[in-house]
Each structure stands twice: as C-alpha cells, then as structure tokens.
Design brief:
Blueprint (H helix, E strand, L loop, with lengths): L2 H12 L3 H20 L10 H15 L5 E4 L5 E6 L3 H9 L4 E7 L28 E8 L4
Antiparallel strand pairs: 1-2, 2-4, 3-4
C-alpha cells in the first residue's frame, strides 16, 4: 500500500469511517491488479467468481452490511468486516456461485514496526484500531469451468 494510502487508512480506521476505509483498500487492491493485468506478459489471476465477489461485497455495503474486499496476488478474495458481522458475511459468501472454500480468521495483536520498515512516525497506529479487530474471511474461488 502506498504511504499516503496507509496514512489515510490509519486515519479513517481511528474515526471508524468504514466506508472510507473500504474504498481505499479496495482501490489499492484493484490498482495492484490493474498493473499486473497490463504488464507484458499480463498476469491475470482473477476468475469470474472473483469479480462476482467484488460486486456482492459492494452491494452488501450499499445495503448497510460493512464489508470490504482485497485480493493478494491470486484469485482468493479477502473480505474484511467488523467482527460482529463476520457470521453474516460468511453466510452470504457461502451461497455465492464459484466460492470453493472460506477460511475465517481474526487478527492478532496491534501492529509492530519491523526493523526494515521505512515507515515514519505516525504511519502505524500505536494501538489496535477498530477495523483491525475485524473478521477476515478468505474466499477461495474455484477455477472457471
């Protein structure tokens, strides 16, 4: 995540602005994949179900269920939500076509600065933020048929 994006997420997480938090992490994930898709040769990790999850998560958020997605270098979607909504998000993910498996996880303690980190003071929260105490659901998509 870009340094400006990290600062924005930290600031928004401390104000409990989930919509802003969701928008920045989804945008950052989408931009990373845009670079991979437009490289030569292109790297296309997403499956049809991956994009379907994006649309579902955004729809859930529009209807009032706080959830956001991010994707690492692969087709597996990570859905973040407040712990209180994790069960509902898991239930909804399980009925989406193409979702092969769901792994549910929580988070550990607050972040620690690594020796090799080039972060500046204020870049990392000093205590656990409300959005870092989320349910993390990893939806493993099945290859397209």
């Amino acid at each position: 995540m870009r340094r400006a994006g990290l600062r924005f997420v930290v600031k928004r997480s401390s104000t409990k602005d989930f919509e802003a938090f969701a928008n920045i992490i989804e945008h950052d994930s989408d931009m990373m994949h845009a670079v991979m898709m437009t490289s030569n040769p292109p790297l296309m990790y997403w499956q049809a179900a991956t994009v379907d999850i994006f649309h579902a998560v955004r729809g859930w958020r529009e209807s009032g269920l706080p959830a956001a997605y991010t994707v690492d270098a692969g087709a597996n979607v990570h859905v973040l939500c407040p712990r209180e909504q994790a069960e509902e998000v898991e239930k909804r993910l399980r009925i989406l076509p193409g979702v092969g498996d769901i792994l549910v996880a929580g988070v550990g303690g607050p972040p620690n600065r690594l020796i090799s980190c080039r972060c500046e003071e204020g870049d990392l929260p000093t205590k656990q933020s409300p959005f870092l105490t989320t349910g993390l659901l990893r939806a493993k998509t099945s290859p397209s048929q």
